[in-house]
Amino acid sequence: MTAPALLPLAASLGDPAGVGPELFVEAWTRRAEEGLVPFFAVGGAMVLAEAAAIRGIEAPVERITDPAQAAEVFARALPVLDLPGTKGADGSYKPGQPDRAGAELALASLTEAARLAVSGQAGAVVTGPIAKSRLAEVGFDHPGQTEFVAAASGVAPQDAVMMLAGPNLRAVPLTVHIALAEVPAALSAALIQRRCTIVAAAMRRDFGLSNPRLALAALNPHAGEDGRFGDEEARIIAPAVAALQAAGLAVTGPHPADAMFAPHARGDYDVALCMYHDQALIPLKALDFDNGVNVTLGLPIIRTSPDHGTAFGIAGKRLAHPGATIAALRMAGECAARRTMTA
To answer: Which of 63, 130, 184, 320 is least crowded, fewest Cβ atoms below 10 Å from its Cβ?
Structure first.
């Protein structure tokens, strides 16, 4: 039986004043050497054309009216899907100068890209970096794009798990955008068990790991030093590990976080699960800053994003590195291919 054809990926523009547009056009120029599957941008045709010109690269833009047209166009131009109600050449390119119109375009692009993935017209959604404060001004009421895409997919926000992935490390923060002082109270054995189960299932389905190895970081220095520096390890983390192991998952921990990211230790696991945001993101960005991908696990669709922000300060100056955008597109294509083969 022939596997169904891979659907093109939908790329949401991100804030048009940031580095997203120039990095998507740069990625298109490297499509062959990087082995990227066909993708199309959602809205912002004029923005993308001007971004290519300012970046000094040859990247023709061609407007399409249906995602099904993207694969044929992709070989000769970056396909850009007209947003509903626009004429295609929407948006103005003012790098480093975010404004309300740009936020409106970013939100419209994100909304339509997510809709296309959920409706089965796109193989995945790859989101460009946004400015959350700007989007809030135009009605965006989610903590971030992860929660937005989860809601669009019909998934509860607590079941959408953020994983940061690079060539050297995959890391999941079990708590994300909360104050460090709030982390101990937010942790529970049930939370750890639920997130680990979601991560393990995603590693099997989307990353081809039949028996993924998960390593849980400790919360406290030296994994609590037998209770001298805190009891969360004994009271919360260790019972969760025991329950997960009893369920048949390859989970270890709690490991002292100051040692588990050393080169010799990283070979012992496939994913590090960390207790708070910076515990996961500091090692990931230290090891894989220019190639880090933010991927949302636990969704019925595939969503990836470059693991960096809008970088307004360097937008339009030919300084932004395309590695993370290329990696996000490549990962989305690889995950989509695995789902297509097993459909």
So the answer is: 184
Instruction: Give the pLDDT mean for 44-70.
Output: 95
DSSP class per residue in 198-246: HHHHHHHHHH--SS-EEEEEPSSGGGGTTTTT-SHIIIIIHHHHHHHHH
Q: CA-CA distance, 247 to 308, in Å (whole number)?
A: 36
pLDDT in tens, 58-73: 999 999 999 999 999 9
Rounded-to-integer distance, Cα 305 and Cα 328, Å = 5
In tens, the pLDDT along 75-132 reads 999 999 998 765 444 678 999 999 999 999 999 999 999 999 999 999 999 999 999 8
pTM score, two decimals? 0.93
Give the whole-angstrom CA distance, residue 226 versus residue 299. 38
**Do the strands 61-64 and 125-127 form a parallel or antiparallel pair, or are they unpaired?**
unpaired
The candidate with the shortest Cα–Cα distance to 150, out of 293, 296, 287, 312, is 296
CATH number at residue 242: 3.40.718.10
Give yes or no: residues 166 and 96 share one domain: no
| β-strand partners of 306 | 293
Let me know: does 12 contact 109? Beta carbons within 8 Å: yes
